[in-house]
Design brief:
By secondary structure, the chain is α+β, with helices and mostly antiparallel strands. The protein has 18 helices and 19 strands. A hairpin with a 5-residue loop joins strand 6 and strand 7.
């Protein structure tokens, strides 16, 4: 229900109403984001200003490696942004700095009416915000799982689920492949199952007389020189049916149940590609970074996200590569891995209603399309998925969005990532698998 409060027609009036005051009071929304420059947001900012001319924007793009330090420093000094981006795995870490989406927003509008004698009409509207039902209907499932979180306004208040952020896009882990290397090996299509993947890697790998890897089938199996190794191991566990957490978001992947066995199988499958005793041996710690190896044409398969497409073209314009959906377990449940950023509003802002109104505005189907096109990113909205399924770059990612998943990694996602990289190293070093899994789980538990 929209509640219309008193309307003021300026002509013949001697004073300002509350509606006029709110609609004409200058508001500057400060926005901090990563990777995207302000040109990707310009269309949405201009469209919003056309409705609310009193609102202006201060947009700041920060480097990924400095973003968190700058964000924490700014909030500590009382200079934080009104709207800021977070990785989907960071929401728990920043919960205390976020003002969740309220149930309604009070927003003022101005409208010019009349043809000969023009009059400006000001209104205040109390507008209901995005509901949990609409969140689930509009966005792919993983979004609700990540952004809908329990919230207590104070220690005595009852806990209720509230929306903490909204995404503008949603990426998934995909398989990049070198077309020339696959053609030379007589492989007509990229693998769709892990069994096919193992066969292709064996065919594509070339080992020298001194056991040197001359050509790698896939950049996979180690920790430090495989981009997003944590994501890949997480994906394998989830595809394998591992229960990553319980109903209270406590990690369970190493528990003395089937979950522990399944997680162990996933880790073994991953590390086999770096085990010289295995038929699929194709990678080791002496290899360069997986991105560099793929850029230089020394490996046939590379696991990456949509943003890697532009990076690969920039690094080697002559590299002929394709992008395919991530392999799945044959006959198993289709599971993909979500990796995306969300926009949220700072608890410290003095313009919370305006800030949340703009975040909702940008996330809507009518407006986010311009951003997706400018930034060349896959959508998080169900209604827009079909528009990207024929796109040469985005089709693989859009096609995986409905089956994308993630898991809660505690209040410090970096702790979980480091724990998994340590798990990989421990298994490769020959440590007892069950002990290595339990150690990783304990580290993640400590960050809850």
């Amino acid at each position: 229900m929209v509640l219309l409060l008193p309307i003021l027609i300026l002509s013949g009036c001697g004073g300002s109403s509350a509606a006029q005051t709110l609609a004409t009071k200058p508001v500057t929304l400060t926005i901090w984001r990563v990777f995207d420059d302000d040109s990707t947001f310009q269309s949405m900012m201009s469209a919003y200003q056309a409705i609310h001319p009193n609102v202006s924007f201060s947009y700041k793009e920060l480097r990924y490696d400095e973003y968190e330090d700058e964000l924490i420093r700014a909030f500590a000094e009382g200079e934080g942004p009104d709207i800021f981006s977070l990785h989907n795995t960071w929401i728990g870490e920043y919960e205390s700095l976020i003002e969740p989406l309220p149930k309604s927003l009070t927003i003022a509008y101005s409208q010019t009416r009349g043809t000969i004698k023009k009059e400006t009409v000001y209104t205040i509207e109390e507008e209901p915000t995005l509901s949990e039902r609409s969140l689930k209907a509009d966005f792919v499932d993983v979004v609700t799982q990540d952004v809908l979180r329990p919230y207590k306004a104070n220690a005595k208040a009852q806990s209720e689920d509230r929306i903490f952020a909204l995404p503008l896009s949603m990426d998934t882990l995909a398989l990049y492949y070198n077309k020339d290397l696959l053609d030379a090996a007589g492989i007509a299509e990229p693998p769709s199952t892990w069994t096919e993947f193992q066969d292709d890697v064996t065919e594509l790998t070339k080992i020298g007389s001194n056991d040197q890897i001359l050509q790698s089938g896939a950049a996979m199996g180690t920790s430090q020189n495989v981009e997003r190794a944590f994501d890949l191991v997480s994906l394998l566990m989830m595809q394998n049916g591992t229960a990553m957490t319980d109903s209270r978001n406590r990690p369970t992947f190493a528990n003395e149940t089937d979950a522990g066995l399944l997680a162990g199988e996933a880790v073994r499958f991953y590390t086999d590609f770096a085990n010289p005793l295995k038929a699929v041996y194709t990678w080791n710690a002496d290899q360069p970074d997986s991105f560099d190896a793929f850029v230089n044409g020394n490996t046939a398969f590379f696991f990456g996200y949509s943003y890697h497409d532009a990076l690969l073209h920039a690094a080697n314009s002559k590299l002929d590569f394709g992008i395919a959906r991530i392999p799945q377990i044959e006959g198993g449940k289709t599971v993909n891995y979500a990796n995306y950023w969300v926009e949220t509003v700072a608890k410290s802002t003095d313009a919370g209603d305006w800030a949340w109104d703009f975040v909702q505005f940008t996330a809507k189907e009518d407006h986010v399309g311009d951003y997706l096109e400018a930034a060349n990113k896959p959508t998080a909205l169900r209604a827009l998925l079909s528009t990207q399924l024929d796109d040469e770059v985005l089709s693989a990612f859009a096609g995986q969005a409905l089956t994308a998943d993630s898991w809660y990694k505690g209040s410090d996602a970096q702790v979980a990532e480091d724990a998994f990289l340590g798990l990989i190293d421990a298994v490769l070093a020959g440590d007892e698998q069950a002990d290595a899994l339990k150690e990783a789980q304990n580290k993640v538990s400590q960050s809850l």
